[in-house]
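Below: protein 1.
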Amino acid sequence: MAELLRLLLRVSEKAANVARVCRQEAPLFQLLIQEKTGDDKNKKFVQDFKTLADVVIQEVIRHDVGAQFPEMVGFILGEESNKFENGLGESVTVTVRATEEETAALLATVLDGDLTAAALLARAIHQDPKTVDASTDGLTVPLSPSDLGIWIDPIDATSQYIEGREEVLEEGHLSPSGLHCALVLIGVYLRSTGEPVMGVINQPFNHRDPTDGSWSGKLFWGVACGDINLCSVSQPRTGPEGRRALSVVLSSSEKEVVKETLTSLCGPEKLMYASGAGYKILCVIQGLADAYVLSEGSTFKWDSCAPHALLRALGGGVVDLTKSLKCSSEAKVELTYHQPYTEGKGADRWANYGGLVAYGDCSQLNSIMGALRGKL
């Protein structure tokens, strides 16, 4: 499925460009940060431009993948609904049309006739990205598109995207917040088992050019299928002779008992905090943290599917924390992506209800589970 991987890399870059355009073009940026509410709100305007930016990115990916692999159309799922209703009760379904002009006309109906903003968005949607070099030549994966489903998170860490703080990324260091935490996530899973087999992570705001202020991104990808384990990231592993203290990244809102337990295990200097579920798992992929622990069911399939595939390619994974704690000492229950939680409603049907642990090494996972067993 090298062809699918190349397509996902290309559409992720197109999606990343839409995310950048929404922040860098003044008419779109004003819509992004100055949403009006209450009496000041134009009732013909869509209720949430932030959500529209998400939906546009999601629909770009859905459209391009469906056009090349029509057998996947019913299995390209995302975080957002593409149906909008304005304050007058008028409903609009956002889709990518055949031409830039048709897409602009549709977007103008959602944006209350704002032709400038609609044209800027449509141009970004229909603009082909620069050539993406991902060294996928020779990759052969024995899967058919009809075996696969896709989860899309169009902009993970939306709050960081909207706030837009421009933190400088230091090589080899986790940075807890900022635009770089906002990621485009595309995960591919097996329909039969729910295993994540391919993932693409696009970081649209990785580096800002000091001369013109333009942003460039960074791509990460991985394939984990049978004996095939390939990843764009080569994560350094510390051998016994260089063993270091375990490091864990958490959400700042994590339960105190988890913070206290992991502080005892790792030491306070090895407990780190960052924004965005996708970014925290990316930190594990890059080796900036050994694990990400979340005890709440506050993430969803679209958050974890793509980075899970990369971790699998590196020998790690993402487990259901609650289910794994109930298992024997070294057993683990990996997250799967094909079945909804039957007792949930709406988006909650796809929540990772048991919390999760993303890990790069099984021995480190066992240490964390051992420490948490009996505490939750």
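Below: protein 2.
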Amino acid sequence: MSSKHQSTGPKVKDHQPSAHESLPLPEANAEAIQFLSNLNQEELQMLLFSETLAMVSDTGEPQGELTIEAQRGKYKDEFGDLSHCLLVHAFSRGFMDKMLCGNSVLGYLSWDLHIMEQHTQEFIKFHILPMERKMSLMKQNDQLAMTRSVKEGEDVKTKTTFFPWRSTQGFVSEAANLLLLRMMAWRQLVPNNAQFLALDTEGKLCHSTYQVDVFIVEQTVHSTEGIPTSCQFYLLSDGHLAKRIQMGSPGCCMITKMPVLRDKDEIQPGPVFEKQPLVWEDDMELYSKFVDRKEELRLSHASYLRQHPEAQALVSDFLLFLLLRQPADAITFAAEYFGPFAKRNPPTPSLRSSDRLNPFRSLDPERPTD
């Protein structure tokens, strides 16, 4: 892991790598990796919807609102290639102890919830020293680049850290976490023994676990340096968020209007039509049509032969030659007999052979076969 540090404003100290930064990066366990690998696009498409929750204080007074929206999107990578992705946008704005605060998340995810790009922002308008934190995550070749900026008053500190891409297997970003919670509610299943990866408040990789109780999911981010942070999510059966409580916060977010729950579409099997035997001779209507059509064709054929007497003479002549020659291959004999009458073929001597096996080859040995 490599990093660079920039800072503007008064009294900024140069960044010194700590002993912790030299420690090996944490890894997600097999249960977490398997859970993410078993996600499928059909289920994820059922989780693409928007919802809005009201932020209320402990006494029930409205303080703001939280909106979460997930939809299909398009993402252009660093090479200019355009691909389909999942677009997650969440933002909240309200008051905490009469101080304006808010945060936003904008993330582009692949269909297996791998991070492509994410931007987060959080601010609290303290009366004395306003605070604002920004973080950007972006996949760059075989690395995940994280740029973190902290602004306290006029002091701004910026730090960029690079994580090897192989070390982010099982990583759940903030945007991916919102879809992962919906998936757990949809499946009614939480991998209790799974240890995912997440970023703590200091921008360091750490483990993240999920627990469930009557489908109240509690996520705990286990920071390696600071205290763990926990958040409880009350989820409906289709993934809608009914309530969110952040431990230590004086308020919570809760649903104000019951949404229409989404059911999984059940594909009904198509109708099967068994083949029924058709005995048309016993059907008076079909048999009558058959007799009428048969008579119609007989009269039509007889009329044609009366108008073209040469046709019967031609057939009689062919039968006479056939019986006189008695060739072993009657088909080839017929092809050669009627060949000179074709408009596309040049005139050639008739009956050059009565024993050729291919009735469709050229009669002229110098001409190639078509």
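Residues 1-20 have pLDDT under 50 and may be disordered.
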